[in-house]
Each structure stands twice: as structure tokens, then as C-alpha cells.
Amino acid sequence: MTGMGSLDGVRGDLAGVLSRFRAGRTRAFSFGVGVPEAVMLTYDEFEDLGGESKFVVGDEVVEPEVLAGRLEGIVEGARAGVGQPVVWGEDGEPEAVVMSTAQYRELRGDDQPPAGVVDDPTVRTYATEPMPGSRPIDLDEWAANDPFTRQLLDEIRAEERSSGEDR
Fold it and tell me: What are phi and psi of 87, to 5 degrees?
């Protein structure tokens, strides 16, 4: 799944979501009713980003069939700004998490958008232009304050010179 999914589409394809997550064929994605309201991500991503320490999650791992029945209420809670992330998977194994878009931003450490701005936190673009006043740095300048780096740079240059003479 890529881009934003619909609530009904996600609810009807939870087995497919798990299958794609297991195979590594999809990453976190948002879904909702017309706008991004919730995010589905792997439990591994949730854990890697410190989700267990940032949010209260129950000990229960919700089965996909149960989640399908609860998903609309979870999204309604996300829309209202209440609720906690829900861990789900098959046979009691935590495989995925559903959470609000605001919680996903918090999990990742992203800023919240201004009020009224619709934003999909799973689709990010970042400014890559240099900051005002920034300038290029060369290797000599970079290595100047670190003797070990300076030594490595000198050794690399000496090797390059000697291999150039061998040709």
C-alpha cells in the first residue's frame, strides 16, 4: 500500500497489510476518511523509535478480526485527539501498530502542523538547501582539529601519490 488508504480499505485488508509488512513491501502509511487521520506501522518501527517508552500501550495484542471491528472507533478517537496506540498482530505476536497522525509525529520527533493544515506525516519532504551563511568545507579544514583524522587523510594522500607513480 502506498499513499493514503481509506478507513474501509484498510479495515477490509488487514491480512494484506500484515503480509506486506512481513515481506517488507510497504512502510508506514496513513489512512482515514478523506484525510490522514491514523497511521499504520510495523511494531519493529514502533519499537525502534522508542514507542514503548513514549506511549502507554496495553499488554494485549489485538487480533486482526477484532481490530477490524474496533478500527472505526480508533480513528474516531484519533480524530478527537484521544486514545493510545493499538498493538495488533496474529496469534498474540505484536506485528503492527495503529496510532493517530499526531502520535506518529510525536513518535518520530516531528513538529505538529499549524492548526487546520492537513498533513500526512508518513510523506515527508525536507529542505536540503544550504542554510544562509553556510559554506563548503574541504577535507583539510575538516581534519584540522582532529589528529587521528589528519593522520588518516595524510596516509590516504600518500597512498594515492604512490599508486599514481606505479602506473
Answer: -90, 135
CA dist., res. 72 & res. 74, Å (int): 5
Sheet holding 5-6, edge to edge: 5-6, 29-32, 38-42, 96-100, 86-88
Report angle CA 86, 53, 120 to the nearest 5 degrees.
55
- Take residue 161 and report the three cell numbers written for it: 601519490
Looking at residues 118-139, what average pLDDT do you find? Answer: 80
The predicted-structure confidence for 12-70, as pLDDT tens digits, reads as follows: 999 999 999 999 988 999 999 988 999 999 999 999 999 999 998 988 999 999 999 99
Going by C-alpha positions, the residue among 35, 31, 51, 55 that lies closest to residue 43 is 51
Contact between 99 and 86 under an 8 Å Cβ cutoff? The reply is yes
